Amino acid sequence: MDYRALILISGTLLLLVLATWVVEVLRNSRDHGIDASILDTCRSRIRAWWILFGSLTCALLVGPIATIFLFFLISFWALREYITLTPTRPADHRTLVWVFFLCTPLQFILIGVNDVWFRSIFAISAYAVYSILIPTYAFLILPASIAASGDPQRFLERVAKIQVGLLICVYSLSFAPALLTTTLPVEEKVSVVSEVFAAGLEDRVIAPLEKTVMNPGTPAPGSIETVKTDVPFESPRQTLMPDNLALLFIFVLLVQMSDIFQYLWSFAFKKHQIAPTINSSKTWGGVLAGAFTTALLAVGLWYFTPFKFWWQPALCGFGISLMGFAGSITTSAIKRDRGVQDYGSLIEGHNGVLDRIDSLCFAAPLFYHLVWIFMNLEMR
Length: 380
Prior knowledge:
The protein has a two-stranded antiparallel sheet with strand order 1-2. It contains 14 helices and two strands. It is mainly α. It has helices at 3-28, 36-62, 64-85, 93-112, 115-122, 126-130, 133-148, 155-172, 188-199, 202-214, 241-268, 284-300, 311-338, 353-377, and strands spanning 273-275, 279-283. The longest helix is centred in the last third of the chain and has 28 residues, at 241-268. The radius of gyration is 23 Å and the shape is globular.
């Protein structure tokens, strides 16, 4: 990690310490005038944040593979909670086996694989595979597998249940750790050189470049005009880790803060509830105010990002806040349909894993693609 990532993570953990102390002081005081239910909610969320950010920090310190593995475990457990909540028939068990033990780990393996090595073997990027693996091939094979079981009863409902769980808990969430393996602009030159090695063209390209570096005044015909000589010729995944680590941490931080912003603002704007039968605590005013507040926080964290313009983190913050709300209300609708209050009880005070990461699941693809778009626009 570079100093910016360390400052960001250390500052977040210090804020958690401060927030824990403030909430405990207010809960023990009788003259604060704050609704006790709000304090209880904040206390439970802070406990969940300690687990989430503590685990994420440890994984980031170990390395990208550990972080991807952490998200795999979270995804696997969230899918388990979802399938437990939406029971299937015995004929679906074979399909669930390959969903849990083949499709889910394969998605995260493709995210963690070295892209240069993958391209040298398959002539296609890993992103091109893991971005379509589940929504295309898994979604086609899944209903065929269930049909092959010979049980047609409630066939469409059974297929839809598993597909929705796979989409939310595995595919969407996998775009969060994918931030660690996406190549940002400074890596493009390194990526080009790495692919030259993979293609076996170093004699044609690298040799002229070396002559150019040794004799700057002698242009190399047909070679790349600019060479970053202080960056080693290695996998692009190893050259931009500080920015990628910061992006992942900022993404998780913004989504979690967006949840609390929307919750608190909804108390200030109590009118115009969005869906009172599904989530009575969210109002239109609260959601929009929370999105704008998240955008302001994103601008405040601009220094820790690779973005060039202030409006880029602002747009990311606003967008993932709205998508986080979409995830929260969607999973709440599933719980209401099943007649339960929560998905599980793994995290004390905030119940199941899916209760805690529903916003992350919906916001991750948007944030990933906004980062990709902004970074590639700067290359033009």
